């Protein structure tokens, strides 16, 4: 077994001396060996000092070198083979096919970012040559490139132990931007975190990069995570998790002497709008597809469809019938951790106990150790009067909001918090009605989908996995897809800088053959 209960501080692998952490088999609750130690304040200090020391060297690696590093991480993750898959399945309770798929996504996004780095477009190079004879005033020589922000703290997510964790999207985009990364491992999957951390550490060494390019710390409480966000050398934070956790980190970051951006992905209930013609023609089929999306991964997706909105009709009834039939055959599911199961049950009980809410469908009951899928319904007027019905229930629970008419649908939209996704189920006859509400929906969410559900985010150039608060802390960006790199960059302008001092990418003659906007014109010039 290569799992040794170690964290990584630069090139060293050490067991933390600040409390004990164990992984658990999510299905049986059995404690997994070995134990892990939480980082001490000295470990935190050393990881931050190394990251800071690595920054200036790492950020000036050639684009090719950086791309090869990302590809080396991907290769090293694959080389972990079955040990990684088995440990990850045990710690998360997720089935093998899902974990293998997630590993493919993780490796795929590292390779996508290798391509983004080689392309160089993310540097956004702009040159406005000097106009010494311009009247009434000459124009100076202006050259712009984007540079990385500095060391980034990445909090691994519990629900995607590979794709949103140690070498997940936030790490890949930060490293691609040129930022050293200090990971904060999630205690729900310490063994998985160690294995992946070792793969990243090996890539740093093999590619001859400064050791502080990557560290991974464990935290037996909250102190190390909070200390990371507060450390003056850390310049940005990536986080996926609860609203409480994300907003706590936002407060720490905002209270620093030099505040820093926190890119936190938090709660989203991903409203699904059912239009009259679509539900009339195929309500039952939409209901069945909805049930599949709702229960995917035990509902532990931030893109899970937690709210369904429609005008009362027979079509809506057939949607509920289709969903109920499909759900009735769904087994209760192992959840990621005991804490997440307890939070799910509490959330479900709170909704079930609401006077205006009725249960309309349920999955199979799996006893105290499994999460049972639930579908509830409420009248729009009652939904509008009860803000708490918009709270995310992390798991396979959803709420149908029955509206009297389109005006009531509009009121529900007005009441919505920011979302990662909004789905519209429409036929051609619904296009006019859909067009009427699209501008309102654009205000609400980062991704608008038609005749589908938000679960299963494609890692691509045009993807947006973000949205207004509280779905994320900063809706101007995405955490999935190549645009994610932009979160960890800032523009710098070099005015009248002598050629010898200019960054190579901005020199006359375009020595790196990159795309640049010269005097407003884009090209390889
Ligand atoms: N919307 C989403 O994507 C997700 C939502 N969740 C929600 O979060 C609940 C708990 O799940 P977790 O994954 O454990 O999320 P969490 O937010 O409790 O923890 C995520 C990470 O942040 C750290 N953290 C949390 N609060 C902190 C604080 N105040 N100071 C410093 N560090 C802090 C934790 O140690 C962990 O590493 C779930 O039941 C669910 O409601 C969880 C995962 C994803
Ligand atoms: O739906 C997906 O594939 C990603 C979901 C996600 O980002 C999350 O659950 O944290």
Automatic annotation (TrEMBL):
Residues 36-467 form the Aldehyde dehydrogenase domain. GO terms for molecular function: 2,5-dioxovalerate dehydrogenase (NADP+) activity. The keyword Transcription does not apply. It comes from the Bacteria. Keywords: Oxidoreductase. Its EC number is 1.2.1.26. It is an enzyme of class 1 (oxidoreductase). Pfam families: Aldedh. It catalyses: 2,5-dioxopentanoate + NAD(+) + H2O = 2-oxoglutarate + NADH + 2 H(+); 2,5-dioxopentanoate + NADP(+) + H2O = 2-oxoglutarate + NADPH + 2 H(+). InterPro entries: Ald_DH/histidinol_DH, Ald_DH_C, Ald_DH_N, Aldehyde_DH_dom, Aldehyde_DH_Superfamily, ALDH_KGSADH. SUPFAM superfamilies: ALDH-like (SSF53720). Gene3D superfamilies: Aldehyde Dehydrogenase, Chain A, domain 1, Aldehyde Dehydrogenase, Chain A, domain 2. The keyword Ubl conjugation does not apply. Belongs to the aldehyde dehydrogenase family. This is 2,5-dioxovalerate dehydrogenase. It comes from Plantimonas leprariae. The lineage of its organism: Bacteria, Pseudomonadati, Pseudomonadota, Alphaproteobacteria, Hyphomicrobiales.
